[in-house]
Amino acid sequence: MLSFTIPPPVVLASDGVPLVIGADLFQVDQARKLLYIVVGTGSGWVLASYNLPAGDRIQSATVGNEVSPAVDFQLSSDGAYLYVTDTGLNVMRFRTDTLVKDLQFQIAADAPPLSSSNTVETRHKLRPLDDTPEGLLVVTPAGRMIVYDRDQQRPYTTTDFPAPGFTAMDPVLVHSTYVYALQRADVYHLVPCVVRYPLDAFGFGPPEEFCSIGTDWAQYPEMKTYAGILVLQNDAEAWAISQTPNSFGNMRLPYSCNPSQNLFAISNSLGTYASNILFTRMDTGDSVGVFPAQAALNGLAASTLLLDDGTLVFFEQVIPRGSRVAIVPQWQTLAQLYQ
């Protein structure tokens, strides 16, 4: 059931952030300066769009009782579609111009629950293909990667071409002709490797593994290094990774990459339920500043984006109030900048 409703209100933040919007998940269309959010309502969830940087609501829709809590939320490369998957393993596609659902299919339940006391499924992921608006990479609960065109699965999956040592995939850089992936974070299975899969109309091909990352790097144009930080980057996105897994098995770094502005935005924990955002130059590693100036955020910041008009957008987990998206027009005026 789809009905239109008013989403959670935009409110002023108490920690110097000009504007926040309650959200569980979010996406930003940087070209059109649009923010999209998903937030649970107890009987479904609200899908809504806002303009940036003003934060004015454009439209919203409530997706009702037939859905479970949202797990992942993605925007297609052309900005035309929003993809949502829920704990029921449904994949739903919504048009961004109307927020009307026009497609739905099911992900295979191909793995047992994490435990007898934790049966809610949240391990699956979605990643739209760059340059292919109706192409979608799906990661199943077991960690298999499958590509769909609309609701039609391409024949070859990563099951047909397994990467030795990898038990479950975590896609990083996704394009219409290749996919880079890491081992899904697992404290009991540390894999210090990056795998690159070729991709075509039939799906995946045989993978290449890079396990001596310090020496193997830069074999492809997407493999870049900025001030000693390894980055997987194409024209659409960039992700910083570590050369080795941390103690949790994670090789992703808490760096948001903004190549067009030559800035890393680094989430910096200041203790329990407090953080700030550090900015450094990507080319030199030199410190640029910290946001907010002489203060701390009342939550843990993540997924930082810098728009070309000077707007800062980031996700913040605020305990016990929940999660929200913060919007900061002209962020440098509220930051402490170093000379």
Compact overview of the structure:
The protein is mainly beta and 339 residues long. 1% of the residues lie in helices and 48% in strands. It has one helix spanning 213-216; strands spanning 2-3, 10-11, 19-22, 25-29, 34-40, 45-51, 57-63, 70-75, 81-86, 90-95, 101-106, 125-129, 132-139, 145-149, 152-153, 169-174, 178-183, 194-200, 203-204, 208-210, 223-226, 229-233, 238-241, 252-258, 263-269, 275-281, 287-291, 300-306, 312-318, 322-328, 336-337.
Tell me what the structure shows.
The chain has 339 residues and is mainly β. The protein is built from 1 helix and 31 strands. The protein has one helix at residues 213-216; strands at 2-3, 10-11, 19-22, 25-29, 34-40, 45-51, 57-63, 70-75, 81-86, 90-95, 101-106, 125-129, 132-139, 145-149, 152-153, 169-174, 178-183, 194-200, 203-204, 208-210, 223-226, 229-233, 238-241, 252-258, 263-269, 275-281, 287-291, 300-306, 312-318, 322-328, 336-337. The strands form 6 sheets. Strands 21-22-23-24-25-26-27-31 form an 8-stranded antiparallel beta sheet, with no helix packed on it. It has a 5-stranded antiparallel beta sheet with strand order 1-7-6-5-4, with no helix packed on it. Strands 2-3-30-29-28 form a 5-stranded antiparallel beta sheet, with no helix packed on it. A hairpin with a 3-residue loop joins strand 29 (312-318) and strand 30. The chain starts with a strand and ends with a strand.
